[in-house]
Amino acid sequence: MLVFLFVVAFFNTILAAEEHAYQQFIGCAFNNEGQVSRFWRYGYDGRDIMHVDLAKEAVVATSEPGQLLADERKSKEYINRKEARLVKVCSAVKTVFLKSNNSLSRAAKPAVYVSSGGEKDQQYLKCAVRGFYPNVIKVRWTQKGKPIYFGVSTTGILPHKDGTFQMISYLSLRNVSGHDVTCEIEHLSIDGKMRITYGEKSLFLSQITEHVLKAVAAFLLGFVLPVCITVLIICIRQKTSKPPEDEIQDTSDESEASLSLNLMNISQET
């Protein structure tokens, strides 16, 4: 992804009774790996007339009006001066770009939830769009593929504490039915358009369900499973420590024999 910075300087020159614009465009292009290119272009009344070719160390005219200016600026000293200026400007831009942690290249897909609300004559549909980045987004209502313009209001784009953005669009059902109404979203993170029709399972709801299932799975693995294993180990230990039945029987037999001898001794004494 390329990130451009344009520094534009306008110089207005009065010729006779008309006003003309002499323009200079200074630009630096970056991607995630660093600087890609830089340029210095000139324009007149909104048209390109010449540019500085740093690779060829030349001033190149791109139109007939720019040829005269190019001839006046073809010295190597002029080109070196422009290149030094570009190096300084682009270096400052690169510092800002790196400090931004390449946030311009990040794109977060929005979660969308369509619901209804209100009572009687004040019923409405609500399209909640959350978690998108950057903050440029288009949200509109359609019915059977046709856009709806009346009865639409929004909260505007609002920041969220996690660095993403959110907004809510409302559609009044006073003059339109809720049948086949769709919330349509266009965003940098979406290939094409995202369409959520009222009554269908929304992406936001599916994401919540996914989070709940993950939480339940984590609970089962982190708490229930260890408890079951502990109980099983205790049962096994108790079973292995229990004496055999024949040993218990022998012990009971010895007790009965001892009791019989005691009774015999007592009877003899009496």
From TrEMBL:
The chain crosses the membrane at residues 215-236. SUPFAM superfamilies: Immunoglobulin (SSF48726), MHC antigen-recognition domain (SSF54452). Residues 1-16 form the signal peptide. InterPro entries: Ig-like_dom, Ig-like_dom_sf, Ig-like_fold, Ig_C1-set, MHC_class-I_related, MHC_I-like_Ag-recog_sf, MHC_I/II-like_Ag-recog. The keyword DNA repair does not apply. Pfam families: C1-set. The keyword Transmembrane applies. It comes from the Eukaryota. Residues 110-197 form the Ig-like domain. PROSITE patterns: IG_LIKE (PS50835). Keywords: Glycoprotein, Membrane, Signal, Transmembrane, Transmembrane helix. This is H-2 class II histocompatibility antigen, A-F beta chain-like isoform X1.
